[in-house]
Write the structure tokens for this entry.
Amino acid sequence: MRERVIAWLRVGAAASAAVAALSVLAMLPARGEELSPAAQAGLEIVSAGCSRCHAIGPTGDSPLRQAPPFRTLHTRYPVESLEESLAEGTISGHPATPEFQFSPEQVADIIAYLKSLER
């Protein structure tokens, strides 16, 4: 019995890892384009910190309806205009958004990822 439980746990862990890998693949830019190393790092940052509210990939709806999909940010304003607020600490107009503060390198990576979504 113990061996069966261990086997099921291993299958479950492998399935979870596969789902996580597919989730990241689904967020890659359309048309099979590869991300630059900076944009890939930016994707990892926004996956960890922003995806619970925002759609961070090239398709899909935001989990939180009022949170704009990241792929549309460039239609509202130049994404480079976010550099200062990302470095100083993002504060949103609604209380559900936690405050984030990023290093200059992280800010550059996030901007590189947001720019990749403009294509």
Observations:
- Residues 79 and 111 are 7 Å apart (CA to CA).
